[in-house]
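worker-3 :: picked L-threonine 3-dehydrogenase, mitochondrial
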Amino acid sequence: MLKCCSDGCEANRASSRSPPDPHHRYFPGSLLLTCTFCVPRLPSTVGFCSSRVLSRCGLGQLGVGLAQMLRKQYGTDNVILSDIKKPSPDVYKSGPFVYADVLDYKLLRELIVNNRITWLVHYSALLSAVGEANVALARKINITGLHNVLDLALENCLRLFVPSTIGAFGPSSPRDPAPDLCVQRPRTIYGVSKVHGELMGEYLHHKYGLDFRCLRYPGVISVNTTPGGGTTDYAVQIFHDALSTGHHECYLRPETRLPMMHIADCHRATVEFMQAPECQLTLRTYNIAAMSFTPEEVAQEIRKHLPHLKVTYNPDVVRQSIADSWPVRFDDSNARRDWGWTPVFGLEELVTDMLNSIQSRRAKEGLPAS
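worker-3 :: tokens ->
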């Protein structure tokens, strides 16, 4: 049975609506982060202590960068990365790393107790297109893994962050813009699991005082990881193709507009939201936005740097149908008002940064530009 722990814990303070301890507002003490991205494997996890952070979304697209940001703020030894696969030499040398599986409840409990975790960040999920290809595995990771961390967060009075997504909306949702509160009804297992997470977290907050926090991410664009199953992945691959072959075949129609965000803004939003005093929050789940563009618009912006880029369009039925059910813009006015969210990267800044970063990486690897 789910229950809260001692009377003095943060969840009980939230339940009574008394002001949170200022030490918990800005430094979590301990944090555990779970995550798996885009691949059919079991998830990973991260965490923070009064003096240490256990990061268990360690090797995913968002986990490595988030851990780097947290280590800069709280110290390398205070962020412990974890995953179920072997880390690269660079990641292993960058700070502490441990094995953890988000579906192993006993192991997660040991990590939380032994490392005195006080924050939990849960990133584990199979993304939209991959989830549709393996619904059973997506249900296991995206929902069973979520219930593990919800139970552990409640049992140990943790502050819990669970990201949601543009995929939490469906064809009956308002599309331009999509507000924080509206009809959702997604049509992918990925989206269904995210709505389930939003509602379970909000229920446990109101029922037991769990300090649950959730951000709906748009498509996240990063140079550090290769695309792997998301509907918005074309917006990463097009940069690599522009600098390697000069040709990109897009699986969406040229006019398909979707909300997007540079990964640096995504990381910063996550940390700022986790650090925000609870008394400032009027919602448990917020949209965050930065820009919205189509494949043709990002291609035109890239051509300002690389005029030779050729883009052809061969829409994939599954991914196009998913994209057509999603919002074209997010309304993030509540996040801007409540905790001061403001993006840094627009389309022009994103394109310049992505091209420069990939070009630099290719030069270091001895690879030619197209």
